[in-house]
Design a protein that fits this description.
- About 75% of the residues lie in helices and about 5% in strands.
- It is mainly α.
- It has one domain.
- The strands form two sheets. A two-stranded antiparallel ribbon has the order 1-4. The protein has a two-stranded antiparallel ribbon with strand order 2-3.
- The radius of gyration is 21 Å and the shape is globular.
């Protein structure tokens, strides 16, 4: 069993390098920078009605700090303070601003979708303006859904931690810090696993079983949490953004997004390897086909584990 796991790990790393995931992660990071104002505006619109500006800023930055680091939260603070609600100049201004926000907010998700399609050996059929608009709509809806999920998770985490702190102070005060840390860790891993699972299951042009996606999402969340500690240690003992001067905050956000994107794509590759070897495989969804390399890999699967036959269509470009 250990040999099989080692073989899967080696294959995952090989797939990660072959699919040029680091290049896709760089593209995701670039587009994510332009998504930040849209994400900040979305958080403002969702929370602005129930929180005053001071509470809103501390809540959002507290969440960013918990998921990434305090330095990353400091880098996001100017973006959150500088965001303005679109439409202050009339209907035309509102329309142009809203369109720009939707485009910026979905650009990174479209890049993630392209990277996941590459990792899972699928490609959409056709294209054109209709496909472009549909992908943007799906990406935007997923963005809004994940934002709501994160905010609900943040609220639930805050309430549970407050309740846990009260119980700990009453019954097991000496063990309080350790128990609260464990509770916070479990809640964070659960929330990250759900987010990663939603991205892996809903964004690509592929169909994969939830149980296969769940394993990949949990593994990605664990690696992300460990990697977060490592990169936070690195940033606390080094100053990689110092040469950028005034642009250091921007460079820090880029570094964090690049790190996260690489881990997400590594998790996608592991999910692909697991689903093909141990699970039910990955099938193209309606309007997509397997790439030539994907058909080759699928035909090599054991007969008892083979997925349902794929619909025939014109072959795409060789990966």
């Amino acid at each position: 069993m250990s040999g099989s796991r080692r073989s899967m790990l080696i294959e995952t790393v090989d797939e990660f390098l072959t699919d040029e995931c680091t290049r896709y992660a760089a593209a995701i990071s670039y587009y994510a920078i332009f998504s930040l104002p849209a994400l900040a505006l979305l958080a403002t619109l969702l929370l602005g009605r129930v929180l005053d500006p001071g509470e809103l800023e501390s809540t959002v930055l507290g969440f960013v700090s918990g998921v990434t680091s305090e330095r990353a939260a400091d880098a996001v603070r100017p973006v959150l303070r500088g965001v303005e609600t679109p439409g202050q100049g009339g209907p035309l201004s509102w329309l142009l601003a809203a369109g720009g926000l939707v485009f910026g907010a979905t650009a990174a998700f479209v890049q993630v979708q392209a990277a996941l399609n590459r990792a899972w050996y699928v490609q959409p059929i056709g294209g054109g303006i209709r496909t472009f608009l549909w992908k943007r709509l799906v990406s935007f809806l997923l963005l809004v859904g994940l934002a709501l999920l994160l905010l609900l998770g943040l609220g639930a985490s805050t309430l549970l931690l407050a309740a846990g702190e009260s119980l700990v102070s009453r019954f097991v005060e000496p063990l309080g810090p350790g128990l609260l840390f464990a509770l916070d860790l479990l809640l964070s891993l659960a929330l990250l696993s759900v987010v990663f699972a939603a991205v892996l299951r809903l964004l690509p042009d592929a169909e994969v079983e939830w149980r296969d996606v769940a394993l990949g999402a949990i593994a990605t969340a664990l690696v992300f949490w460990i990697g977060k500690i490592g990169i936070a240690f690195y940033l606390s003992h080094a100053s990689p953004t110092r040469p950028f001067g005034a642009a250091g905050s921007l460079a820090l956000v880029l570094l964090w997004v690049y790190f996260t994107a690489n881990l997400l794509l590594l998790g996608a590759e592991w999910t692909q390897v697991w689903a093909r070897r141990m699970g039910r495989g990955i099938r193209p969804s309606a309007g997509a086909v397997l790439t030539p390399r994907g058909r080759e890999r699928e035909s090599a699967r054991p007969a008892e584990a083979a997925a349902t036959p794929q619909p025939s269509s014109a072959e795409g470009n060789q990966r």
